[in-house]
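Model: Ready when you are.
Researcher: Fold this.
Model:
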Amino acid sequence: MAPARNLSLSYSTFVIALLWPAATLAASIASPESCPVTNNHCTCLFKGPFYSLRCNSMREMTDFKAVLPSIGENAAVLELDSVHLDFLPLNDLSNSSLHTLIVGNSSFQRLHNSSGMHQPAVNLHHLSLENVTFHEKVQWKQFSNLTNLQVLFVYNTSVQNVIPANFSQYVSKHLVSLTVTESNITRIERNSLELLTNLTALRISYNNLRTFARDVLPQTSKLEQLRL
């Protein structure tokens, strides 16, 4: 895998700015309210009615579960950095109000805590995996419970290296941006994105692709940006 790069706070700021009007964001930053999460691993990046939470250096699932009860309805972004657990605790966020989950410079044994296909729905709009190692390589069908996902960003992460023909049956039909870079993708099969009619940005650069078939995309594509 490529050398690790650090997650940027400005990235979270950008995401939050997309979620709320600028005036609301400015008011939240200026608010004197304190961070509702009191944990040695976590800090609030924004105070007020909406906030972003950053947690790092977790190695026990009990550390993460201790944070969950404190994540209130005004939490928008959760960043996990340098976290090393048995599995990525996506399912624990099924009742959360979080819009965005950013995971970076971390490692997990597997994506889910069980191998069953019927995982609880998680209402994330944005999932970012940067420099993440899964010892059991992630299969695309494991994203099927992220039914409202609009942005999927995968960089230098252990995922299935083929984007199969039924890929668009597994991922959210609401996707507007799909990025899979430096993740050793070797093939994109025909019709793999045919159901992603809302997709406007596709970035699959810095992989091991040799061909890109014309009929990968839907016939009525809204694609505005393509990076191979």
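Researcher: Now this one.
Model:
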Amino acid sequence: DTLTTPLPRHSSGWATDALSSSITRALEQSMDRDEAIRTVEDNPHDLGGLADEFKADREVVLAAVTADSHGAGEVLCEASEELRDDRELVLAAITNDSYVEHDDDGTGCTALDSASERLRADKGVVLAAVELNGAALQYASEALRGDREVVEMACESDGWQEGDGQAICWASDAFKANKDLMLAFLGIYGADYFGCASKELLADKEVILVAVAMDGETLSHASDDLKADRDVVLAAVEKSGPGVLQYASEELNQELTAKKQRSE
């Protein structure tokens, strides 16, 4: 028989996984607090791979959330439940949570998202979070999502959108159903996110007449019945020009467009 020399095996697949697991177990068994702190200072996201005792160690977790200049919220979510209820620690994570990776709908992981339910109902903590990033409002308690000071701060901040008011979409249902609050919002931020108002407000002729007098583009968010209401549509056109006819009902759009063409 011809002797063949076996080809060297590459460390891949299950072999690599097994080796990594063995190394991880060895590190967990031999690592002390100082080594754990150095580990998370070098790479804060390594906190998730440490033993549970280090995830419950305040010094280790504090080192991790203060060392991460991007996603301290993602690091905090690896901490023990008890430490995610530590107000000072959560505030440290919020302060260092300068970057949030958002999904297409604007959501993402923030330090407030990782905090305990108790701290998400703490106005001081929530204000600190939304001042840096308005998107954090979605993780606040229901009561604070209806707090005018908190919502206004979130809309002004909207970290990744330069304060365009998108945070209003995460306000409480009660806030978005409040006529005075939503009209005040419209006066500051325009029509873009006025569609987050309650269906009742968007179907209220009195409210929409005031709204289109402020910004005719608000017609795009009105109920179908009001898009077919001559008074509402004419008020929108008077404020913002014939371009808003695209939002009117097909019948009114055709009628008023034809009338405009005849007058030219």
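Researcher: Key takeaway?
Model: The chain has two domains: 30-159, 172-259.
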